[in-house]
Amino acid sequence: PPLILEAAAYVAAAMASIFLSKALMKYSFGTPEFRAVFLSCLRLFAISAVLLFAAALFETQLAPWLLGTLK
User: How far is CA 41 from CA 1, 47, 49, in A?
Assistant: First the structure.
């Protein structure tokens, strides 16, 4: 399960990076279109960070507990 969360985090971060690079090529910094894309990319980066934190928490806290209960 942590691998699924980590993969989703990496995919979300990669998507945000791609969208941001496309926005940099297509729009100027001060335009409302660039701002909208930039804010969407920030949301994707935030989602990615939360998913990665959840994966780390699962891997360090819940997985050892689950393995301990199986003994």
Answer: 25, 10, 12
Give the pTM.
0.80
Of 57, 54, 55, 51, residue with least CA distance to 12: 51
Please report, as a single letter, which amino acid is at residue 16: A
Q: Which two tokens stand for residue 60?
A: 């360090």
Q: Which residue has the tokens 């990615």?
A: 48
**pLDDT one-digit tens code per residue, 15-26:** 999 999 999 999
Read out DSSP for 25-54?
A: HHS-TTSHHHHHHHHHHHHHHHHHHHHHHH
